[in-house]
Write a structure and sequence with these properties.
The protein is of the alpha+beta class. It has a five-stranded mixed beta sheet with strand order 9-10-14-15-13, with no helix packed on it. The relative contact order is 0.08.
């Protein structure tokens, strides 16, 4: 207790938090748990008409003025009282052998709920013997993470020691307490591509599956345009709604968001805004409503749980995601309908058959006490996830979760289902029937031997918002992006790049002692795998294009196409009609490479990538390619267009940045380049006619005083709309390219 006192001032809040931790550390029966006592106190307060002005304490309930009432003070006070009461009432029983007494209860079948609670599983949660074979207990999760936490601490101590040594040698003072924060698991998410067709004469989000909607920063419903903007007067984020009927006019602006808006959806008359934020390290003072936390009060319990540990604790989970649901039946007067919160970084989402499926990555931090569940268990709307909803693989190598939640878009009042899996998920693919999640595994260089990277795959079925883990499997190599996966007739097809290496021991020349390990004899190759519903490999082609790597991939029906690169661009075509015996049909070698592939009408495949020198592999600007795939055994580059003024585009790594409509025969993206003091930042719009690319629009967006940052494009009928991050929208004619109007942000 003395050491803790040195780190943290013993304020009223600190004492409350400490007492609550003591209470939670004791094996308290359910009837004396702080939360249960809190409920008793709450009932008493409500019966007496007390509280903050006698207002209802129902979580999330709105008052007459439409604002949600905060009960932060009430929560903190009653929780502290409940914790203290639990400690006092239970202190007399500390000498009792509770394990023995609980064992008696378990043997007689009495008190099963209390037994389950003490053992780390909430009452009524079920167990493995009841058919939930994949379910876990909190104790199992704690034990699974313990070794990883120890490794993290050792690694942190190692770097801390090196930092201190460096500071001493340079004469600098000791690093501050925040100089070496706990390392967080990095889970980068790449994205894939789509082949959907439009229904209606307006631009759609470029998505991987035609019937599975994807979120983006720009939406278009055929009349109204919706986009995420950053306001120049206060730099806060907002969602802009603009009417295109009779000229451009901003009808509404939803904001101000302190945190970044990651994505939005427009589903019928509902707008979904996905906000990503970080909790500050310092506690929120009572009554402070402008703290960077959701001002609607939907995550108070989550924030209180995190802040009860305060600075200097063994864990500090910071990331959270908020799902705002708005009624936009009246586009000029959007009203917030409901707000959801999930602890963790937003990773991806989909809407399928009227349900929103939402994915976040949540770290599991080492707690001060094992029963301090908030440190290492995911939370949804301020409540920790039940253990039977958490899947714990046998070969755990990360202290992190992928958390999944679903919402019925017809009635978005509550989560339909929630679940989680212990994994560092980094790629997602959602078909009409399944959710596929992948976890990249890289070669372990700490032991000697032949090593290679690999990918762990998990399949979850989903229907009516319910998600269920069905299978898991492993293949060699790692995926370039989401588009390297595709499901067809119950089979999952994947292309991976395999990195092989030989790790050898490094010994001291004199003593012969092993002083380390070194990776030698590196070799790259590429593979194609076909997996069945159990994620067992039933067909494969390995050792393709040695010393190259996958740059793009696309599957359509019984055919697959993927590009590798070193100096030239081999475009492979694959016959997948027999999933158990896939075979390479052709290999087209051309200069450069395509980083994005899109099926473009009948027998055509569009490639967007880079031109490159055939001898050196040095890139030389962007390049468009149109491949004739009418004969997969003899694919030809029918047409190409070099864009040497541009050497970068978001389209190369984010398929949603590409406006593409094959029925409209239109595609576009922003591009930029810097050559000999000439800076170009343009939006390029193309069509493909008579076997050649034709430029429809080339809009110069390099003027910083007018345009800002990100540029996107969409269309309605014969008009093209350039959408700018600062809220500026410009309208152009698709017939003659003339500018028709503009909306200038205030």
């Amino acid at each position: 207790m003395g050491n803790h006192g040195n780190r943290e001032q013993w304020t009223k809040e600190a004492v409350e938090g400490y007492l609550q931790k003591i209470a939670e550390s004791e094996p308290i029966p359910e009837q004396l748990e702080p939360k249960q006592m809190e409920r008793w106190l709450k009932d008493a307060v409500e019966r007496q008409g007390a509280g903050e002005g006698g207002a209802s304490m129902e979580k999330g309930k709105k008052e007459g003025n439409g604002k949600r009432k905060s009960y932060r003070r009430w929560w903190g006070g009653t929780a502290a009282v409940a914790a203290c009461l639990a400690v006092i009432l239970f202190a007399a029983g500390r000498s009792v052998d509770w394990d023995r007494e609980l064992g008696k209860l378990e043997e007689t079948g009495e008190g099963r709920e209390a037994v389950e609670e003490v053992k780390g599983r909430p009452a009524g949660g079920g167990n493995k013997e009841e058919g939930l074979a994949e379910g876990s207990t909190y104790q199992e999760l704690y034990q699974a993470f313990s070794g990883i936490w120890k490794e993290q601490e050792e690694l942190e101590a190692h770097y801390q020691a090196r930092a201190e040594d460096g500071a001493e040698s340079s004469g600098a003072g000791a690093p501050s307490e925040d100089a070496a924060p706990m390392m967080e698991n990095s889970m980068d998410v790449d994205t894939g591509s789509s082949a959907q067709k439009s229904s209606g004469d307006y631009g759609k989000t470029n998505q991987q599956e035609e019937t599975v909607d994807e979120a983006d920063i720009l939406k278009n419903d055929g009349r109204y345009l919706y986009q995420v903007i950053q306001q120049e007067h206060n730099f806060k984020y907002a969602v802009q709604i603009a009417d295109t009927k009779g000229g451009l006019e901003e009808t509404a602006r939803i904001g101000d968001f302190d945190n970044d808006i990651s994505d939005i959806y427009v589903w019928k008359d509902t707008l979904v805004v996905i906000e990503s934020g970080w909790v500050n390290d310092t506690a929120v003072e009572e009554g402070d409503e402008d703290s960077g936390i959701n001002p609607l009060g939907k995550i108070e319990s989550f924030v209180e749980d995190i802040f009860s540990a305060k600075k200097g604790s063994a864990y500090q989970e910071r990331a959270y995601s908020i799902i705002h649901v708005y009624d936009i039946k009246d586009r000029a007067k959007p009203t917030e309908y409901h707000t959801f919160t999930i602890k963790g970084n937003y990773r991806d989402s989909r809407i399928s058959e009227g349900y929103l499926y939402f994915f976040t990555a949540c770290n599991a931090y080492k707690p001060q006490l094992e029963k301090d569940y908030q440190a290492y268990i995911p939370e949804v709307d301020g409540e920790i996830l039940s253990p039977e909803k958490i899947y714990l693989p046998e070969d755990v190598d990360t202290a992190a979760y992928l958390v999944m939640a679903s919402i019925n878009m017809e009635k978005p009042d509550e989560f339909t289902d929630t679940t989680a899996i212990v994994a560092s998920a980094n790629k997602f693919y959602v078909s009409q029937d399944n959710i596929y999640i992948t976890d990249s595994k890289y070669a372990d260089g700490s032991t000697a031997g032949e090593k290679s990277n690999s990918t762990k795959i998990y399949r979850f079925s989903y229907q009516d918002g319910k998600m269920k883990k069905e299978a898991e499997g492993t293949v060699k190599g790692t995926l370039r992006d989401d588009m390297a996966m595709n499901e067809h007739k119950g089979f999952l097809r994947m292309v991976t790049t395999v990195e092989n290496q030989n790790v050898k021991e490094v010994k001291d020349d004199i003593t012969g002692e092993i002083i380390g390990y070194d990776s030698v004899e590196f070799e790259n190759s590429n593979s194609l795998y076909v997996l069945d519903g159990d994620l067992e490999v039933v067909g494969k082609i390995e050792n393709l294009a040695k010393d190259e790597q996958i740059y793009s991939a696309r599957f359509f029906g019984d055919a697959g196409y993927f590009v590798t690169f070193r100096q030239t661009d081999p475009l492979f075509s694959v016959d997948l009609s027999n999933p158990r015996k896939p075979k390479i049909l052709g290999e087209l070698k051309i200069s450069g490479f395509s980083e994005y592939l899109h099926f473009y009408g009948e027998n055509l495949l569009l490639g967007i990538g880079m031109e490159a020198d055939e001898k050196t592999g040095v890139t030389d600007g962007l390049k468009l390619s149109m491949f004739d795939i009418s004969n997969p055994s003899d694919v030809k580059e029918q047409s190409k267009l070099g864009l040497p003024d541009y050497d970068y585009s978001e389209a190369l790594y984010n398929y949603k940045a590409v406006l593409v409509d094959t029925d409209k025969n239109l595609f576009g993206f922003h591009a930029e380049g810097y050559h000999e003091d000439d800076y170009k930042y343009n939006y390029l719009l193309f069509t493909f006619q008579d076997g050649a690319f034709k430029e429809v629009l080339n809009i110069d967006c390099s003027e910083n005083d007018i345009y800002s940052g990100r540029m996107r494009g969409t269309y309605i009928g014969s008009s093209f709309y350039l959408m700018c991050m600062n809220g500026r929208i410009e309208e152009y004619s698709l017939e003659d390219g003339n500018k028709l109007g503009e909306l200038v942000p205030e």
